Amino acid sequence: AVVSTQSTGEPYEKILKKLVSYFTIFEQEHRFLSTNGKEKIRDIIDSIYHGINEKGYCSVNVIDELNVIKLSYINKEHFRDPPEIKDSDVPIITADLLQCDDWDLTLRELYPHLDNQKPVRLLADRSLLGIDLVKKCIQSLIYYNLATVISPIQYSNTYYSTNVIHTIIQDAELQEECKQYVKIHPEPIPEWDCIFNLYVTFQSGIKLKRLLMFEKPFLNNINERKLVEFGLLKGILKRLHKYPVVRNLDHDCDTPPQLKEYIASDVLDGQHSFDDISVKLKCKLNKVKEDLEFCKYVTIIQKLGV
Predict the structure, then answer these.
(1) For residue 242, which phi and psi values (nearest 5 degrees)?
(2) Would you say the C-alpha torsion 256, 258, 260, 264 has a positive or negative sign?
């Protein structure tokens, strides 16, 4: 391929240097270039070309499963700064990390714990890494379009469908992706009409546990958690978050016992959701709700988000 004069070839330099290194090793150890015709080499180059252009990375078996070319393309001009990561954010891996090279030590320690379910705080505890290191690692994955973050999916959460639901009616590719994503077992593949009707159920807002009780998506081979996860990732669903703010508290009087820890932790500022508070203080979400939701000194602000 020839790079346009208006474009920089810098992002491709690393790929070409690494490809030269691969072919040098294959020739020295297996005389690969000397003993194989141009046709086979052209097929390998074609596989690399299509993989890099379509997915941003490639993995090509050259001689056997132990002799593989793995390359990835990163053009930093196309990336935006990642968002601030909260303790309660759940990283969702959106690419095959095993196809990516140049893992740092943090990612090597963190990778076994990345299951698309654990929040950042729990990942730090399980991997024995500092919370700041884990956040920086997740930010790096997001920066390179290898991951994103959502809030924890819990059955007590309330979700609303968005206008995006109307745009996917004609998008057959997205429908197929959704069917593969939400299925519990390989067969039978869930019907799109059934999936769509479930998303429509969220239009007026519904708790996930009520969806499970009344719609029973598992009877149609649909994982309700994966249904919500896909909806959040694609903008089909938004979650209702609750942010407590302390008010009307006379500092001359005794602080209500249930508020003391929250006030000391500075989490009643309208910037911390119930999830954030639960994870930060390492207490059950139900306890946070019981302590704050009906307290006369606390106002609850509700916002839609992921």
Answers:
(1) -120, 125
(2) negative
